[in-house]
């Protein structure tokens, strides 16, 4: 029997995992359709099954695509994103949720 903490994470088709961390707390964790981020050389988008990536982030808006029709927005202050095994980990110096 496989220990419970070693079971693979199951996510729905066309979704990936997103985790957004600041030095103070975990701001977001969950299954998403994708995420749009402010890179230092312009905005870019990460979707399901993206190739492994590490990129620097600038200041700006982050759009979390919860599904094809629902989004959440955050203003972020610099950091990095790592994409590996269908999970995006966003490490930022600061972030604030933005109401529509």
TrEMBL record:
Keywords: ATP synthesis, CF(1), Ion transport, Membrane, Transport. Its main location: membrane. Pfam families: ATP-synt_DE_N. NCBIfam families: ATP_synt_epsi (TIGR01216). Produces ATP from ADP in the presence of a proton gradient across the membrane. CDD domains: F1-ATPase_delta. One of its GO terms (cellular component) is endomembrane system. It is a peripheral membrane protein. The keyword Ion transport applies. This is ATP synthase F1 subcomplex epsilon subunit. Transmembrane segments: none annotated. PANTHER family: ATP SYNTHASE DELTA/EPSILON CHAIN, ATP SYNTHASE EPSILON CHAIN, CHLOROPLASTIC. GO terms for molecular function: proton-transporting ATP synthase activity, rotational mechanism. Belongs to the ATPase epsilon chain family. InterPro entries: ATP_synth_F1_dsu/esu, ATP_synth_F1_dsu/esu_N, ATPsynth_dsu/esu_N. It is found in: Endomembrane system. Residues 18-95 form the ATP synthase F1 complex delta/epsilon subunit N-terminal domain. The lineage of its organism: Bacteria, Pseudomonadati, Bacteroidota, Chitinophagia, Chitinophagales. F-type ATPases have 2 components, CF(1) - the catalytic core - and CF(0) - the membrane proton channel. CF(1) has five subunits: alpha(3), beta(3), gamma(1), delta(1), epsilon(1). CF(0) has three main subunits: a, b and c.
């Amino acid at each position: 029997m496989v220990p419970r903490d070693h079971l693979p994470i199951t996510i729905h088709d066309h979704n990936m995992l997103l985790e957004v961390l600041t030095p103070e707390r975990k701001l977001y964790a969950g299954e998403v359709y994708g995420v749009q981020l402010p890179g230092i050389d312009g905005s870019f988008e990460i979707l399901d099954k993206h190739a492994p990536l590490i990129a620097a982030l600038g200041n700006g808006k982050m759009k979390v695509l919860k599904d094809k029709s629902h989004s959440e927005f955050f203003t972020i202050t610099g950091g990095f994103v790592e994409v590996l095994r269908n999970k995006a980990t966003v490490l930022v110096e600061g972030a604030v949720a933005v109401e529509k």
